[in-house]
Amino acid sequence: MDLASLLLLFLSSLCCSCCFGAAPPNFVLVFADDLGFGDLGCYGHPTSLTPNLDRLAAGGLRFTDFYCTSPVCSPSRAALLTGRYQTRSGIYPGVLYPGSIGGLPLNETTIAEVLKPLGYATAAVGKWHLGFGANGKFLPTKQGFDQYMGIPYSHDMGPCQNLTCFPPDVKCFGLCDVGAVTVPLMYNDVIKQQPVDFLDLENKYSDFATNFITTSAKKNQPFFLYYPSHHTHYPQYAGPGAAGKSLRGPFGDALLEFDNTIGNILTALEKTGVINNTLVFFTSDNGPELMRMSRGGNAGPLKCGKGTTYEGGMREPAIAYWPGTIKPGVTHELASTLDILPTISTLAGAKLPQVMLDGVEMTEILVQQGKSKRETMMFYPTDPSERFGLFALRLGKYKAHYYTRGASHSSTTPDKDCEIFAVLKAHDPPLLFDLELDPSENYPLSLEGKPDLQALLERMKRVKQQFEASMVFGQSQISKGIDRNLEPCCNPQCTPKPSCCRC
Ligand SMILES: *[C@@H]1O[C@H](CO)[C@@H](O)[C@H](O)[C@H]1NC(C)=O
Ligand SMILES: *[C@@H]1O[C@H](CO)[C@@H](O)[C@H](O)[C@H]1NC(C)=O
Ligand SMILES: *[C@@H]1O[C@H](CO)[C@@H](O)[C@H](O)[C@H]1NC(C)=O
């Protein structure tokens, strides 16, 4: 090294440690799949084994009133990464498929794109589910992530009956999507393995995540790691490190394997000395898939689950962990996945995207145990439309349901309101619940002789009208349909498809 570069090195080390304040914080965002409000030990599940998530909760801030924006996967992810309701970006109705023509529009700004101009290293590992598209044009590397490793959609979106989900050779439960190509494992835009080996998948993810942390920390580069896990979505799987080790069967083993990765991530943050300068945020994409019965998740005290706009469909476990900055505790403040982009942006000192955002920043909740800037939460169904608008709205502690409907994903519990046969029902006046007194939405409030509640409903109606007037629906990406030729195949010219796509 010559003298000039030595001097430069010396100056740059000076500038980062003294003159321009503390180094910008790192962010680790962990997003579980189909994990319900009642599934973690720290949220009261009696037999789940989640020592590392419980450790995050004990040393961090645990939310009781945290919401995702959709009771299904792709829209919930779109809102998480953009800070905007999925209706704006067009990620509706339902979810994207391997051959979907659409995807998260490239002109949407993701958290990774917010951080990139500040010199952050960015990586995504796990389940993307925001589109694949022609030549992989919707993959994470096109949305601000330097690197990606994972399955670009749900791991049941390909035939699975002959695949091994638990050692030594326990086949996956159920058929999964028999018509599609087997699920691929991608590194950036290249298919590395098809079908994926479920027994080794979590190991690969964990190694990728910890290597990324270690490499970035060694370079002194701030980083953003986005880890949307496949756990605990159907079909559950786990390698030898977790299989058979929980009291809760396949679901518990999958959850334990996920929890082990959280532990590895925390260890990497500790070993590299960046743990005190890193915000770790954990939450889940939507409620539990109750139709899988004891192999599905658990909504705890909440009503129904995945696919519905009841609390079980959209209220999620959430934990913010940042030793020395976030005081351990529990918060009942209202917050949402929408708020993560503005919060990260504030903490990093980044510019907000110049678009209509639905998120509000929550640094006061995190670092001062302060009040939420969020007063409302909007509940869109899996197939939002301008005609029906919101199905429900939460204002403060009250929630009004304008429409209710069950869902196949939530069938099989004794509650008849959750199942697919509970068809769309309009409520006028809306069904009104006090979620502080009745988080299970069991007892609609009677309006008779209650002018205060009638006035509240009037206010909620105005809030709803105002919000709906401000909502510009983006062109539906999912309605663009499916082209089977777009399904990722490691051997694109092979026949007969899809069974020849194996590498
Ligand atoms: C992205 O482009 C589409 C099509 O031109 C447009 O309708 C939409 O408003 C744009 N979105 C953003 C966030 O700029
Ligand atoms: C699974 O294995 C059975 C029996 O060998 C075979 O008939 C079937 O075609 C296989 N299915 C897939 C999707 O590979
Ligand atoms: C983080 O801060 C705690 C005190 O809050 C301290 O005990 C610990 O050594 C710090 N860890 C690192 C890696 O700096």
Automatic annotation (TrEMBL):
<comment type="similarity">
    <text>Belongs to the sulfatase family.</text>
</comment>
<keyword id="KW-0106">Calcium</keyword>
<keyword id="KW-0732">Signal</keyword>
<feature type="domain" description="Sulfatase N-terminal">
    <location>
        <begin position="25"/>
        <end position="350"/>
    </location>
</feature>
<dbReference type="InterPro" id="IPR000917">
    <property type="entry name" value="Sulfatase_N"/>
</dbReference>
<keyword id="KW-0325">Glycoprotein</keyword>
<dbReference type="InterPro" id="IPR050738">
    <property type="entry name" value="Sulfatase"/>
</dbReference>
<protein>
    <recommendedName>
        <fullName>Sulfatase N-terminal domain-containing protein</fullName>
    </recommendedName>
</protein>
<keyword id="KW-0378">Hydrolase</keyword>
<dbReference type="GO" id="GO:0004065">
    <property type="term" value="F:arylsulfatase activity"/>
</dbReference>
<dbReference type="Pfam" id="PF14707">
    <property type="entry name" value="Sulfatase_C"/>
</dbReference>
<dbReference type="Pfam" id="PF00884">
    <property type="entry name" value="Sulfatase"/>
</dbReference>
<keyword id="KW-0479">Metal-binding</keyword>
<feature type="signal peptide">
    <location>
        <begin position="1"/>
        <end position="17"/>
    </location>
</feature>
<dbReference type="InterPro" id="IPR024607">
    <property type="entry name" value="Sulfatase_CS"/>
</dbReference>
<dbReference type="InterPro" id="IPR017850">
    <property type="entry name" value="Alkaline_phosphatase_core_sf"/>
</dbReference>
<dbReference type="GO" id="GO:0046872">
    <property type="term" value="F:metal ion binding"/>
</dbReference>
